[in-house]
């Protein structure tokens, strides 16, 4: 069994934000988009990351976007905040993964797919909330932590997979007494996110419920989004599609609407 202390240790290894990144996030949280862009331009690694992410085909820009102020202007306040959260996650990404067949390219693709479609979902639902939009960044972060935890018990993971046809999230729960969504909550607390932000991700498990109707509705959309994304060929090859069990009944009422949005994404 992996102890809670070991899990906390992995989460604590999420690197502290460089000063420029901290200032950028502080200004974005204050709604100062222009000032945030002026500060962010000093971080060359952040600039390179944003250019790489924003110019992927999934975002649909015909011409290359290279200026950081232009990138922030296109993304808007909530989109810029989410992009910076994604960059924070990229700082945590390992050079070599323990279990999942991922690399920097496929991990960036995972972030891009989740972020882009989550934004379209929120637009469809007429929700403009930078905290709710940033919730999607918790999923890639928790996958990184989960992979590190699996690496601690890699032989046990392979044994459980060979003996039983169970998903990785169930194995994670057995090894750690915490699942992927619990890890999301712990990371959300470390990042000082609002409670609803990580409760939405918890609701996305399909097995945890909350009284707040918006939280549960967004949890359904995020559950479908996660399953849809991890079912793409590149993530099947990475073994990520075996992470969670799809809860059909949980998302039945929104399935048609989701697929209409997802078809536009293709």
Structure description:
By secondary structure, this protein is mainly α. It has 16 helices and no strands. The chain has helices at 4-12, 19-29, 33-40, 44-54, 68-92, 104-124, 130-134, 138-152, 154-163, 168-176, 180-190, 195-203, 213-230, 233-237, 248-251, 255-265. Helix 2 crosses helix 5, helix 6 runs antiparallel to helix 13 and helix 8 crosses helix 11. The mean pLDDT is 87.
Explain the layout of strands and helices:
Blueprint: H1 4-12, H2 19-29, H3 33-40, H4 44-54, H5 68-92, H6 104-124, H7 130-134, H8 138-152, H9 154-163, H10 168-176, H11 180-190, H12 195-203, H13 213-230, H14 233-237, H15 248-251, H16 255-265
Helix pairs in contact: 1-11, 2-3, 2-5, 3-5, 4-5, 5-6, 5-8, 6-13, 6-16, 8-11, 11-12, 12-13
Roughly what fraction of the amino acids lie in strands?
under 5%
Unreliable residue stretches: none
Structural class, from secondary structure content?
mainly alpha
Q: What is the tally of helical segments?
A: 16
Overall average pLDDT? 87
Give the overall silhouette. globular
Q: In whole angstroms, how far apart are the ends? A: 41 Å
Cα-atom radius of gyration: 18 Å
Task: Summarize the structure in short.
The protein has 266 residues and is mainly α. It has 16 helices and no strands.
């Amino acid at each position: 069994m992996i102890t809670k202390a070991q899990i906390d240790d992995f989460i604590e290894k999420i690197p502290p934000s460089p000063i420029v990144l901290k200032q950028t996030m502080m200004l974005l949280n204050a709604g100062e988009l222009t000032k945030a862009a002026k500060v962010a331009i000093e971080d060359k690694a952040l600039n390179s990351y944003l250019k790489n992410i924003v110019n992927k085909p999934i975002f649909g820009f015909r011409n290359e976007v290279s200026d950081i102020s232009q990138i922030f202007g296109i993304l808007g306040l909530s989109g810029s905040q989410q992009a910076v959260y994604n960059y924070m996650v990229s700082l945590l990404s390992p050079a070599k993964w323990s279990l999942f067949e991922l690399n920097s390219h496929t991990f960036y693709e995972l972030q891009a797919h989740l972020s882009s479609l989550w934004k379209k979902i929120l637009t469809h639902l007429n929700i403009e909330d930078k905290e709710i939009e940033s919730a999607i960044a918790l999923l890639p972060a928790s996958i990184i932590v989960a992979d590190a935890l699996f690496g601690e018990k890699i032989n046990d993971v392979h044994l459980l997979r060979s003996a039983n046809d169970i998903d990785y999230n169930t194995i994670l729960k057995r090894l750690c007494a915490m699942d992927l969504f619990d890890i999301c909550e712990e990371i959300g607390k470390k990042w000082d996110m609002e409670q609803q932000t990580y409760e939405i991700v918890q609701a996305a498990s399909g097995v945890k419920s909350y009284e707040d109707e918006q939280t549960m509705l967004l949890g359904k959309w995020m559950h479908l989004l996660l399953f849809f994304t991890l079912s793409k060929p590149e993530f099947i090859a990475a073994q990520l599609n075996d992470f969670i069990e799809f809860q059909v009944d949980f998302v039945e009422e929104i399935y048609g609407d989701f697929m209409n949005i997802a078809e536009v994404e293709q």
